[in-house]
Design brief:
Layout: H1 19-33, E1 38-41, H2 58-66, E2 69-72, H3 76-99, H4 109-122, H5 132-141, H6 153-159, E3 162-167, E4 173-176, E5 179-182, E6 190-196, E7 200-204, E8 218-223
Helix pairs in contact: 3-4
């Protein structure tokens, strides 16, 4: 949810709450709306620490690379703002998903997207006194919209991912998921995996650095 306009930016359905699920959810939001100045979360350890220079966690590295500050909700009341919206969406969307016969995550966006758009255009927020769409239109007209353009897909692929080191065998292979995977011959003793769980992974010649959002040399790419 956008804190200023109360716009519901993105709603996603997942079988379990994982960091990867949050990455996919944030990627959808960033791609459709742009990059915000700050991400406001609860205190789950998966989100890391507050600030703008946290390179110690997966989420912190993503936010650093995208130039997004991070703040953790300091009070139950602050957290309640988003929790109320989550509750509202759950109550409204579950009956629609059931009625549409949705049985898997992949089929959910076709139901969720149109209803979220309807909600933003029709629901008058008690605090702002206007709909989210009207508040956003006014912010754009008055030059108060702080979203930045989303970076290229390659940057999102690189940093909205898990990064893991691997030793290179004498046969120029690396171990992952109980298998040996061949890579381009390299003098490096250690390489890094850029992993999108259950989807794809790349092997690169050095650890990705969020302070330099460019791809290292790719030694292999495999779809899972």
């Amino acid at each position: 949810m956008d804190d200023h306009t109360r716009e519901t930016v993105a709603v996603s359905l997942f079988g379990a709450e994982t960091l990867w699920a949050h990455f996919l959810h944030l990627r959808r939001a960033f791609t459709s709306h742009g990059i915000p100045e700050m991400l406001y979360t609860d205190g789950f350890s998966m989100f890391g620490h507050e600030g703008t220079r946290d390179l110690s966690t997966k989420c912190g590295r993503v936010l650093y690379a995208l130039g997004v500050a991070h703040r953790i909700a300091p009070t139950p009341q602050a957290k309640g703002k988003i929790e109320r919206n989550v509750g509202t969406m759950r109550r409204r969307l579950i009956p629609l998903l059931v009625k549409a016969g949705v049985k898997c995550e992949a089929d959910a966006p076709a139901v969720i997207g149109p209803h979220v758009a309807y909600w933003n255009k029709s629901h008058v927020n008690r605090t702002t006194g206007v709909t989210a769409s009207a508040a956003l239109d006014l912010a754009v007209r008055e030059g108060r919209c702080a979203y930045r353009p989303c970076p290229q897909t390659a940057v999102l692929d690189l940093f909205m991912a898990y990064h893991e080191p691997r030793r290179v065998s004498p046969a120029n292979t690396v171990d992952f998921l109980g298998r040996q995977w061949r890579i381009t011959p390299t003098s490096k003793k250690t390489v890094w995996l850029v992993i999108h769980p259950d989807l794809v992974f790349w092997v690169v010649d050095r650890k990705p650095d969020p302070r330099e959002p460019v791809w290292p040399t790719t030694l292999a790419k495999y779809r899972l």
